[in-house]
Design brief:
Largest sheet: 5 strands, mixed
CATH topology of the largest domain: Double Stranded RNA Binding Domain
Strand content: 5-15%
Strand order of the largest sheet: 2-1-3-4-5
Oligomer: single chain
Structural class: alpha/beta
CATH superfamily of the largest domain: Lipoprotein like domain
Number of domains: 4
Number of strands: 5
Number of helices: 23
Distance between the termini: 118 Å
CATH class of the largest domain: Alpha Beta
Radius of gyration: 33 Å
Helix content: 40-55%
Length: 451
């Protein structure tokens, strides 16, 4: 073999090697789902075009195997609505100069993926702006910051995950991003992992709860709540004592989302936190968990200006175990007016399970206080009226109680509820031996009949 042939042979081998090493990679597998992009874009820069958001997103979707159909197509599986806007940002003055060199750019990109029935599958908002330190091109730097946002960089993978196709391809890169040197990237990664909801991310996110950066810890706690894995319960309980109030808030929220009873006692302790929103979300979480141990602390929290309304809702969610303690508060002569009101509202939140105990509480009370106008009797009546229709049958039965106070209160309550089922029993009550019962029955009938 002469030298020329030898050189050609060697070149051929090199070409084959390159093809084998780099040219034979498998093409991106098709996902079998078509998406139409409907994009609008605007910019504040006169005479300039905004960033080609349509082309950029099309590329992101095609990279993971989606088919992007033409804008005029009527044959597609989903539509991605894109609203991209560039607005005028802050003025920039270089160090050592007094005059403004230019203005930054703020970018907002709203994304919403819907199916053919217009039901939302996924939506998010991406924001970026020209950084404080720039490379010299204020606009280009804003675009660069936008392109580094994780919801943009991994948009195709995130949408694939939401549609349940192609595997959770975004998880591994996002987990790696939790270790990025830039804390903003780590925060974005934590948020994105929460959106994906893949349990693969739980252990890395638990590790990230020990981050030095409070912002990362905050979004990590939020992400763990969205994923809802019980492995995160103990680390999140520990995070309830974090030095940063926002971290404690997200930890309380997350524990409520997970709903594990191990969190009950720590959340009860969090009702005493110095940050009002920590207390509020602790109360909300206790309502979601629904454990009876939280009843007394939540009743105490009714007096908290910042937490009272949430505590009422939480007691309503706990339901029947909260009824008797709330009635005790309602009928206790030493209870303050505001706490009595809140206890009543909590019983209304509980609804039907509170009806019979409220009537029984009135019956018990009149054994000691034979006074129709006593507020301890009136408060349960107000609660029964607000509960409404579920209380009607038992109130009708109460028209036959041996005590005239109970009969009169039942008649009055039935009139205020206005349910027509009470008409016949109230007509019978017109013949009651007690004049107050007769009067209340007559007034109730007027209200129900509308005259």
């Amino acid at each position: 073999m002469n030298r020329k042939m030898m050189r050609l042979f060697i070149i051929g081998l090199l070409i084959v090697s390159v093809i084998i090493m780099t040219g034979c990679a498998a093409p991106t597998p098709k996902l079998g789902i078509s998406i139409k992009i409907e994009a609008s874009a605007s910019t504040w820069r006169e005479g300039e075009q905004p960033y080609d958001i349509y082309g950029a997103i099309k590329e992101k979707l095609e990279e993971v195997g989606f088919e992007v159909v033409p804008e005029e197509s009527t044959d597609y599986d989903a539509i991605l609505h894109v609203d991209y806007e560039e607005t005028k940002g802050a003025p920039y003055t270089p160090i050592g100069r007094e005059s403004i060199a230019g203005y930054g750019t703020n970018i907002t990109c709203d994304l919403r993926l819907v199916d053919k029935a217009q039901s939302t599958i996924f939506e998010t908002e991406i924001r970026a702006t020209t950084p404080y330190q720039t490379s010299g091109s204020l606009y280009s730097d804003a675009i660069f910051m936008f392109k580094t946002k994780l919801y943009f960089e991994y948009l195709g993978e995130i949408i694939a995950s939401k549609l349940g196709v192609g595997g959770a391809t975004a998880v591994e890169p996002l987990i790696r991003a939790l270790g990025d040197e830039n804390s903003n990237v780590r925060m974005e990664a934590a948020k994105a992992l929460g959106e994906l909801g893949d349990a693969t991310a739980v252990e890395p996110l638990i590790q990230a709860l020990g981050e030095e950066d409070a912002g990362v810890r905050r979004y990590t706690a939020e992400a763990l709540g969205k994923i809802g894995d019980e492995r995160a319960v103990e680390p999140l309980i520990y995070a309830l004592e974090d030095e940063d109030g926002n971290v404690r808030i997200e930890a309380a929220k997350a524990l409520g989302e997970i709903g594990d009873e191990r969190a009950v006692e720590p959340l009860i302790q969090a009702l005493n936190d110095k940050v009002p929103d920590v207390r509020r979300y602790a109360a909300e979480a206790l309502g979601k968990i629904g454990d009876a141990r939280a009843v007394e602390p939540l009743i105490y929290a009714l007096d908290d200006t910042y937490v009272g309304d949430t505590a009422k809702e939480a007691l309503g969610e706990i339901g029947e175990p909260a009824v008797e303690p709330l009635i005790q508060v309602l009928t206790d002569e030493s209870t303050g007016d505001f706490l009595r009101w809140d206890a009543r509202e909590a019983l209304v939140e509980i609804g039907e399970p509170a009806v019979e105990p409220l009537i029984q509480a009135m019956i018990q009370t009149v054994k000691d206080i034979d006074d129709y106008y006593n507020y301890i009797l009136i408060e349960p009546k107000y609660a029964l009226v607000e509960i409404g229709e579920p209380a009607v049958e038992l109130l009708i039965q109460a028209l036959g109680n041996e005590n005239w106070c109970i009969r009169a209160i039942a008649a009055e309550a039935l009139g205020e509820i206005g349910d027509e089922r009470a008409i016949e029993p109230l007509i019978q009550a017109l013949g009651d031996e007690n004049s107050e019962v007769q009067y209340q029955a007559e007034e109730a009938l007027k209200k129900i009949r509308g005259y």
